[in-house]
Amino acid sequence: MRSVGVVVEYNPLHNGHAYHLQEARKITEADVVIAVMSGCFLQRGEPALLSKWERAKMALLAGVDVVVELPYAYSTQKAEVFAEGAIKVLSALGVDNINFGSEMGVIDPFYDLVSFMKMNKSSWDDQIKAEMDTGVSYPRAAMEAFKQLNQHESTLSLSQPNNILGYHYVKAISDLNVPMDASTTKRTVAQYHDISVTTQSIASATSIRKNLSQHEGLQSIHHVVPKTSYQILEEYVNDFGTYHTWELYFPYLQYEILRSTPAQLRSIYECEEGLEFRLIETIMQASTFQEWMTLLKTKRYTWTRLQRLATHILTNTTKKEMSEVTSNDLAYIRLLGMNETGQQYLNRVKKDLPCPLISRLAKAEGTMAKMDDRIAKIYSIPLVKNNQHSVLKRDYTMSPIMKKNNNKEDSRL
Amino acid sequence: MRSVGVVVEYNPLHNGHAYHLQEARKITEADVVIAVMSGCFLQRGEPALLSKWERAKMALLAGVDVVVELPYAYSTQKAEVFAEGAIKVLSALGVDNINFGSEMGVIDPFYDLVSFMKMNKSSWDDQIKAEMDTGVSYPRAAMEAFKQLNQHESTLSLSQPNNILGYHYVKAISDLNVPMDASTTKRTVAQYHDISVTTQSIASATSIRKNLSQHEGLQSIHHVVPKTSYQILEEYVNDFGTYHTWELYFPYLQYEILRSTPAQLRSIYECEEGLEFRLIETIMQASTFQEWMTLLKTKRYTWTRLQRLATHILTNTTKKEMSEVTSNDLAYIRLLGMNETGQQYLNRVKKDLPCPLISRLAKAEGTMAKMDDRIAKIYSIPLVKNNQHSVLKRDYTMSPIMKKNNNKEDSRL
Hints:
EC number (chains A, B): 6.3.4.-
Family (chains A, B): Belongs to the TmcAL family.
Pfam families (chains A, B): HIGH_NTase1
Enzyme class (chains A, B): ligase
Number of helices of chain A: 19
Number of domains of chain A: 2
Order of helices and strands of chain A: EHEHEHHEHHHHEHHHHHHHHEHEHHEE
Oligomer: homodimer
Binding site for ATP (chains A, B): 7-20, 101, 162, 187
Largest sheet of chain A: 9 strands, mixed
């Protein structure tokens, strides 16, 4: 069975994602589509609007055959580490090909750039260091260094988020030396950062989230998400009364920063260069997460980097713990859902897996399992109401979704 | 000027307290009454219903001349440490006499018991150890040991909370070897633990708090608190919309326990003998603080002991920090309020103080100041609403209340 891997967040799954799935399958002539999906918190340091279970269901209903979780240790990370984690998971599952969206839709420039950057690594590093000494953020410095280095070449633009991720997927395949091809699908219409939903049927996830959070309501995004996604979005807000936004977690974050000593904050992953004092200084002046982020922002750190730090504080993710998890091999792969095709595929590759494929977190042990369990509980806190504290245990005991090919009913394994 | 010290919580100040103040002044023929009052959290491990400023005002309006704060390191502690802290503060202020409430209203049995227990310390300690080996709590073991030791003597009953505190005040005077007399006022009518407010004009603070928290409303306690206390209680709920109860803090406590590792919980003061695992196990099953406490309670630990542990978790008070503060001399005494008589007194004793008398926390440094500042911020969290986040800074910058003798207006220093 030919397989293609996709790296996704589906926050939420929209028509652009559905189109990408079709194209990925077509381009690679794959029999099976494997998605590795961020769990509770996302690459940009935000909670996912809906839990991983609802998003996995969206994926299965949009044509994905297997959904596995990208562990928190990789999901809430800069592009380089995020991509490395995703490639580790897909490669462990024996995936032949990765397909990602890009602006141009041509794969060669990604390979070319990876080779070029490897060859020029030391001059690039020197140039980044020089740029950072002027006080700018790492991504900005990397971009400037890249421009300097690349001024006589006509290569890939790294100013687009999707190109950056694509570059890092190809680089991780090369760095990890895994037997996987990369291919790319040209993105249509909406740009990653677009903030308004138009009348067209494809809109960016950013613009969709904006509409959902500003209570323009589900109705306003009806034409840009598959019907199945729409139903799941509707059910979630009916069941739990809310989507997960940073504002719901802000009181806890504020409490935590007021409660912590500078040394405790310093132990948190990505709390560097005295940021702990800035966190403490600004937290009492803000009433909302957005307000706080605006106070916290400096030239040195990107908004996304600071949101990731906020997530790590909220979830108590320390430097020590993160280093322990990411410097080791994958402890397990967590299955979130599959259909019959996916099940066939997993049965075939099962014997060659380098780590356990687990159906429930309750079956895993070790630092990564503890981390994912703790984080799922913290993610669920805003769902606790009317004495339904059992929601906190939901993720720990949940079994993967099993979607039958010939009817719409899904069940648990 | 003859001075008498009282150790108080005033949660809230009621007619029984007002009576005690009159009697204390009369019995000791004192010119000035000095109250050392718990700040944000109380001996039983509960938040004070109203902030220290409102309770200090109640005290001044009921006849206290100087109100100083009992630091958190002593206020939320078992009777022995609580009493030691209070005596340290009063003695630093040069107080001649301490007066406390007791069931019998006679001081000699307290002195006798302190001498008797000193003489029999080693047999008592042995007996306590033997009792604890049966699995009971320390207070229960101490009581049983006391009964064994004391069976042929007719002395003070240590089964009354006020007698226990009184015993520890007298013991601390002796242990610390400070030149202070002790005297006692016989308590009238209400017992410490009484839970219902009757038609009589004196009710226990426990019953008053119960009426306030169960929304039987202020009106139901009108006849058992001075008019001035009543007004302050009324204003507080008008200004802030709430009194401080454990339930308001429970979501933060629950979040914190879900967020923490066992090792982090173990570092918290009073988290002993594997209690961290019991905390984690029970916290997901409870929707309210009361429910959680019921799940947490064992034969080994008293309710009060566990409430104090909950407070230390909420406030991030570690074993290390607590030991640092309590093993050192008092770092400062914080003045909360005074009247002109109090000011005169303080002017006289000022030059002999063994530590600074501070008017604002912003003027203090060191571990105890950091602790009191952090705790005041956490205490204020439930008051934050409608963007009034400045309430978090209230305690740090607040100056003592200055009450003029001849008019009712009060001002800040």
